[in-house]
Amino acid sequence: MNWTARTFAFVALIGAAIGGAACRDFAAGSASASEGDSAVSATILQLRSSPGDFAEKRVKLTGQLSECYGWECSLCPDTMTIEIRNEDRCLALSFRPLIEGTGFGEEEQENVFRFSKVVLVATFDPSCWEEGVCLDRQTVLHDAEVITVRERRAGSAGLWLQGRSTLTEISGDEAIKLRSAAQLAGYPDGPPIKAFRSEGSDRRTVVCWSPVGVNDEPGAWPTSLEGALYAKSTLDLFHCNKVKKVGEQLVLQV
């Protein structure tokens, strides 16, 4: 059973235990075809240029999802890249929870769909664009549900709207010590292990193992600290842990 299947099985089990809530197969798309047919088809540009025409309506949109990590999760045009990213051309969204008012299932959907090119339906509420209404994140797409996943991408190829801490591979004696510490902590024998350090003032060390790391294909190794630990795509096959030095001992943090 693959990771996505295990995730859905877990969500389904919890949903049944708390009252038979209707659980959706996030991997394939969470909204029904009938709901997509009943929603108003629109584009991101139309909603941004004429928000009053679509306010409080259930809309059907096509685009790519950003990193969906921390406070950031947006639907952006397919043509947007990291080099030309612009939050003002995107629509901040939140996923529909499995049980209304609980938030249960929103994070799981972020984990399954981040960086994907999708077709989704959501309720459009542009009130956050009015000055002073929303003090933090200006979410305008509510109760979003994915109808179709058109393309999945590894984190290295995905759209990141926020800044990232680039990772640099560690080599030499330090890398040998870090790999040994990882194996002592339970990393599997066989798959390659690499150590990385993030750039910037807040430097962090991570070790990772990857079942496909020998090929260095997309998704084999992380390219940023955030991608290694917090915002993985379903195509990112590496497994990483932060490393902290306690005295003379290297400790892997879960």
CA radius of gyration is: 20 Å
What proportion strand?
A: 25-35%
What is the rounded distance between the termini? 23 Å
Main beta-sheet strand count, sense and barrel state: 5 strands, mixed, barrel
Shape: elongated
Description:
With 254 residues, the chain is α+β, with helices and mostly antiparallel strands. Helix content is 21%, strand content 25%. β8 (193-198) and β9 (205-209) form a beta hairpin. The chain is elongated, with a radius of gyration of 20 Å. The protein starts with a helix and ends with a strand. 33% of the residues are buried.
Quick tags:
254 residues, alpha+beta, 5-stranded mixed barrel, 5-stranded antiparallel β-sheet, 11 strands, 25% strand, disordered N terminus
What's the topology here?
Blueprint: H1 3-17, H2 33-38, E1 40-41, H3 44-49, E2 58-65, E3 74-76, E4 91-95, H4 106-113, E5 117-124, E6 141-151, E7 167-169, H5 172-184, E8 193-198, E9 205-209, H6 225-229, E10 239-246, E11 249-253
Parallel strand pairs: 1-2, 4-6
Antiparallel strand pairs: 2-3, 2-5, 3-4, 5-6, 7-8, 8-9, 9-10, 10-11
In short:
By secondary structure, the chain is α+β, with helices and mostly antiparallel strands. It has six helices and eleven strands. The N terminus is likely disordered.
